[in-house]
Amino acid sequence: MITSPKTEKSNRTIELPEFLCEEIQDYIESLYKVNENSRLFEVTKSYLHHEMDRGSKAAGIKRIRIHDLRHSSCALLINLGYSPIQIAERLGHESITITERYAHLYPSVQKEMANKLDKVFKEEEKND
Q1: Ramachandran assignment for 60, one of left (phi > 0), alpha (psi -120 to 50 degrees), beta (any other)
Q2: Considering all CA atoms of the chain, what is the largest pairwise distance in Å, rounded to the nearest integer?
Q3: pLDDT tens-digit profile of 39-89?
């Protein structure tokens, strides 16, 4: 069943990385009788659940929910240095408060901030 998005902010256009566009294009070319109204991924929620089980067992890791991939994406974008505002816009979060919940995932950023502040302080001390 296809339903409308939860929020108005969920209706958005996002830029995809080139590698993903190429992967999707290759996939579309492998489909039979595809047109502009075709669904690209005709899979059920239970199929995705089964595939997550299979993949996690094969990799020897804990299984996560499909929705958790959004959390992983958010955490990766934080690690890549994007601001909460930029990430919230991409993920369709209603406010940056939702996005900021993930900041704790990369405590090394806190150490980096402390080091930069220390450097600024020492430079200011030299100039006094």
Answers
A1: left
A2: 73
A3: 888 888 899 999 999 999 999 999 999 888 988 888 888 888 888 889 889
